[in-house]
């Protein structure tokens, strides 16, 4: 079940990664080579207004701007007529008010002044004196612009915006005009989103501004044209999207105005009319990109994304941790996940491996022991089912079966009688274990009460059979003398290894695998030492 769960999680991560990669590639068009737009803009304002008993047409209310891709529409005006170059009182602002000639410095000019001071203090009116200046007189007053605005009706004027764009990489050019342009259309975000003719009032409404209020002091409005073009024939899309917002600060000196003058001569003397014109400057801002499919770009971006997929596993792990600790108890799924993710590396000298005949797995037990090895708590490390593992099959040949009848004779009689059931140790469950005071030697072949493994046919054939053990020794050392006096030692050691291979499935655990007391003494009784001085735990 845990393996299936692990496979399911890995498959889920793989599918999720592919899905996210596909979404990112398609959404952000990472399969395309991109190019920045080059642009040119032309504008044409139309409209006529009648106010103050005069006609205002395009030539009067549109003033050429030096800024690129901008146009200006006049909405309010202050006129100072019949100005001539002469001396006159300055407009009464703080630094121009005086009480005597000593307050006025000849030849000086304040930053707010309209001319050069002559050094005289003269009457501006019956109550106020100001420094006299040489300037275009009468000087312009600093009064506020008229309310309501003079050309408030310019709200209904229209502007045609012609925008040509070009993508140099792809040699592609397009105009912001629809193929079937209706020249009587007016831009509407919903009904006519591609119409290039805009009503000024609608522009300010889209920018969330009140035209009548803004017309008094003027301001700056941005008309944004965004080109996000997909130039692939199967997904072609290249049409502009318009946006509008106000650019000038509405808290610190809001508004926008310019000054200009019209000059003429009267009786040979030059005069002028000064205009302080308030209005709205429209800045047309064009930006965007165009893309076409490119295999190199696709491979490069996919390679970059793969490096970020590792974050998915981290995100899932964080989610599992949060879900686990937010619940009142440990999640079983989280326990399984944590056990599969982390592997505890222990010092080989600090662990023991045991196997019980009535349990299908090998158990790992950590040292030091506080009770008998039989009763010590451990953890499952692997299955003890080795039927499919050819390498772990015990050594057993057909010839050994032919000698089954003679085996009892070859095994001989045990050196000592096993303990009887009444005198059996508390930790022994089979009744065949030998008493010992050392915790690490107190191990039975069974976890629960039952028949001892040493009484089984397979223990006799796979572990104790001298015929099988001798053939194994000869397989390793063909010229071994089986009549040697030390042959019992070699047979005993090989029997221990046979037991470990049979019950643990591998020789890799030989150093830490513990042979139960009953089995250990059965092997020792069958193949005894010349001198009975066994150390107990060691396989001697």
UniProtKB/TrEMBL annotation:
The UniProt record lists the keyword Transferase: no
Membrane topology: Multi-pass membrane protein
GO cellular component terms given for this protein: plasma membrane; postsynapse
Catalysed transformations (reactions): K(+)(in) = K(+)(out); Ca(2+)(in) = Ca(2+)(out); Na(+)(in) = Na(+)(out)
Membrane spanning residue stretches: 7-31
Primary location class: membrane
Annotated keywords: ADP-ribosylation, Cell membrane, Disulfide bond, Glycoprotein, Ion channel, Ion transport, Ligand-gated ion channel, Lipoprotein, Membrane, Palmitate, Phosphoprotein, Receptor, Transmembrane, Transmembrane helix, Transport
Pfam (any one): P2RX7_C
Source domain of life: Eukaryota
Region of interest (Disordered), residue spans: 376-417
Localization annotation: Cell membrane; Membrane
GO annotation terms (biological process): bleb assembly; calcium ion transmembrane transport; membrane depolarization; organophosphate ester transport; pore complex assembly; positive regulation of cellular component organization; positive regulation of interleukin-1 beta production; regulation of transport
Annotated InterPro entries: P2RX7_C, P2X7_purinoceptor, P2X_extracellular_dom_sf, P2X_purnocptor, P2X_receptor
MF (Gene Ontology): ATP binding; extracellularly ATP-gated monoatomic cation channel activity; purinergic nucleotide receptor activity
Domain P2X purinoreceptor 7 intracellular: 353-538
Protein function: Receptor for ATP that acts as a ligand-gated ion channel.
Name by which UniProt lists this protein: P2X purinoceptor
Source organism per UniProt: Himantopus himantopus (Black-winged stilt)
Classification of source organism: Eukaryota, Metazoa, Chordata, Craniata, Vertebrata
């Amino acid at each position: 079940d845990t393996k299936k769960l692990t496979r399911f999680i890995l498959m889920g991560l793989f599918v999720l990664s592919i899905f996210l990669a596909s979404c990112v590639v398609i959404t952000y068009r990472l399969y395309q080579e991109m190019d920045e737009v080059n642009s040119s803009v032309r504008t044409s304002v139309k409209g006529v207004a009648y106010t103050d008993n005069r006609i205002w047409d395009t030539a009067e209310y549109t003033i050429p701007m030096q800024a690129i891709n901008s146009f200006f529409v006049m909405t309010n005006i202050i006129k100072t007529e019949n100005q001539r170059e002469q001396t006159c009182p300055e407009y009464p602002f703080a630094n121009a008010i005086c009480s005597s000639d000593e307050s006025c410095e000849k030849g000086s000019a304040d930053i707010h002044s309209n001319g050069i001071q002559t050094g005289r203090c003269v009457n501006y009116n019956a109550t106020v004196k100001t420094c006299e200046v040489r300037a275009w007189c009468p000087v312009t007053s600093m009064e506020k612009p008229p309310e309501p605005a003079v050309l408030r009706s310019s709200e209904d004027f229209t502007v045609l915006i012609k925008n040509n764009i070009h993508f140099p990489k792809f040699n592609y050019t397009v105009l912001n005009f629809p193929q079937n342009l209706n020249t009587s259309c007016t831009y509407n975000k919903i009904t006519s989103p591609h119409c290039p003719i805009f009503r000024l009032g609608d522009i300010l409404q889209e920018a969330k501004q009140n035209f009548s209020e803004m017309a008094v002091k003027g301001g700056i409005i941005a008309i944004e044209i965004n080109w996000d073009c997909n130039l692939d024939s199967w997904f072609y899309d290249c049409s502009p999207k318009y946006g509008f917002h106000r650019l000038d600060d509405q808290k610190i000196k809001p508004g926008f105005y310019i000054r200009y003058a019209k000059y003429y001569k009267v009786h040979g003397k030059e005069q002028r009319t000064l205009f302080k014109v308030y209005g709205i400057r429209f800045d047309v801002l064009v930006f965007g990109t165009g893309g076409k499919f490119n295999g190199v770009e696709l491979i490069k971006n996919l390679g970059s994304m793969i490096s970020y997929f590792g974050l998915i596993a981290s995100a899932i792990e964080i989610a599992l941790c949060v879900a686990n600790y937010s619940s009142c108890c440990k999640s079983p799924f989280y326990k399984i996940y944590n056990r599969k993710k982390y592997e505890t590396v222990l010092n080989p000298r600090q662990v023991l491996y045991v196997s019980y005949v009535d349990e299908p797995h090998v158990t790992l037990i950590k040292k030091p022991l506080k009770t008998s090895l039989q009763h010590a708590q451990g953890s499952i490390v692997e299955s003890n089912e080795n039927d499919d593992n050819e390498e772990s099959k015990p050594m057993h040949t057909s010839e050994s079966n032919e000698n089954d009848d003679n085996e009892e004779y070859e095994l001989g009689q045990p050196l000592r009688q096993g303990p009887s059931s009444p005198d059996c140790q508390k930790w022994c469950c089979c009744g065949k274990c030998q008493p010992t005071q050392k915790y690490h030697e107190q191990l039975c072949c069974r976890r629960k009460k039952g028949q001892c493994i040493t009484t089984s046919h397979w223990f006799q054939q796979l572990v104790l059979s001298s015929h099988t053990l001798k053939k194994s020794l000869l397989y390793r050392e063909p010229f071994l003398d089986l009549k040697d006096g030390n042959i019992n030692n070699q047979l005993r050691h090989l029997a221990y290894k046979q037991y470990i291979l049979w019950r643990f499935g591998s020789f890799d655990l030989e150093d830490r695998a513990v042979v139960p007391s009953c089995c250990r003494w059965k092997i020792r009784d069958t193949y005894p030492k010349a001198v009975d001085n066994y150390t107990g735990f060691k396989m001697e």
